[in-house]
């Protein structure tokens, strides 16, 4: 095997932030929807409020998502969307996964 083909197996080449199933699900959902409200994300991916909050905070801290809070009447509503950096990170991560998957299908 060449050094280049071994690179796809090196776990250090995969974004540890996006390696989490919940964060990958969040990012994928946001890529498809553009912007999504907290309860929609929670219900779509099957997370609890606390678990989702923690993962959203990590994604925001890494500047992969942008969070917007507003009120609908007196009810607080929180919206999330991917940042341009988040889109780039997700596309790069998916490209690496696709390359890995293709290598094991041969």
TrEMBL record:
Pfam families from the UniProt entry: HTH_34
An MF annotation (GO) of this entry: DNA-binding transcription factor activity
Superkingdom field: Bacteria
Annotated InterPro entries: ArsR-like_HTH (IPR011991), HTH_ArsR_DNA-bd_dom (IPR001845), WH-like_DNA-bd_sf (IPR036388), WH_DNA-bd_dom (IPR027395), WH_DNA-bd_sf (IPR036390)
Chain ranges of the HTH arsR-type domain: 16-106
Gene3D superfamilies hit by this protein: Winged helix-like DNA-binding domain superfamily/Winged helix DNA-binding domain
PANTHER family, per database record: BSL7504 PROTEIN
The name this protein goes by in its record: Transcriptional regulator
